[in-house]
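Worked example 4.2. Below are the chains of a multi-component assembly; read each line carefully before continuing.
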Amino acid sequence: MVLNNIEQLLEKYNNGETSLKEEQQLKDYFKQETVAPHLEMYKPMFAYFSVSQEEKFTKDVPLKSNKNNLYKWISVAAVAVLMLGFYFKSPLTSAEDLGTYDDPEMAYLEVKKSLEMISKQFNKGASSINYLAEVDNTTRLIFKK
Amino acid sequence: MKPKIMTQTEFLHIVMPFKDKVFRLAKRLLVSREEAEDATQEVLLKLWKNKTKIQEYKNVEAFSMTMTKNFCLDKLKSKQAQNLKLVHSNYQDNNTSLQKQLEFSDSVNWVAKIMEDLPEQQKMVVQLRDIEQYDFDEIAKMLDMNNTAVRVALSRARKTIREKLTKTHNYGVK
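Applying the procedure described above to all two chains together yields the following structure tokens:
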């Protein structure tokens, strides 16, 4: 390319008036081994532009789908519910402490009272099953022979 | 017609062509490679979450570049507020594998350094024009500027780079 032309293009270039095509001409010119000595300083600039153009993004493209996110949050919620369950459950079990007696005499009397009550209630309950004997009587009647 | 749900494959098909451009713009602004990678992932994740919406956009790429710009500028602002200094140690990771490019290595890195000192808007304009080769209308839309303002910013940036390179060239200052 004619040097004169290159100088004109550089003038336009520095004023921000060159087209992409003209800029490509300049890039091509400065790619040469030897350029006009007084234009030498442009060489690293255009070289840098060409080199920079080649740089690549080498990391992965991160794609997280929303579905996975939902599952993640559901599991977090489930764990939270479980933890809350344990938290509210534990003080209830310890609250079932009903106290104790220090005096053995008193303890004996209380146990006796409790057992009496159980036996009384048991007998009362058992007496209501007495009518079941009637079933026996009836079956005997039927299967007599 | 009701928009159907986009699959991951369809989404990747849309973002693959410009994910590198998002990354490079992020790196231009944030300088550090790791931070630019994080920013890119953040932007792509936001796009994925809005996948039902992006089907309605005519130009997802321009929209994504604007998102990247906003995300990075916010990041820089909060960083400034925290008074943290940017760490930049990765000029080397350009593809300077070729022997011919190695020769330039120093002066090419010097251009990177010069660009770092440009105001943010000029950085972005040079990035989008000289590196990504977008046309002026696209850049104006992405950066929410008018066409003339883009040209003015670009001209200033190019002249600054030229001046600093001329100085280096003449005096051998590195």
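Take a moment to check your reading of the output against the notes. Chain A touches chain B at residues 13-17, 20, 23, 40-45, 47-49, 51-57, 59-65 (CB under 8 Å). Residues 40 and 84 of chain A are 75 Å apart (CA to CA).
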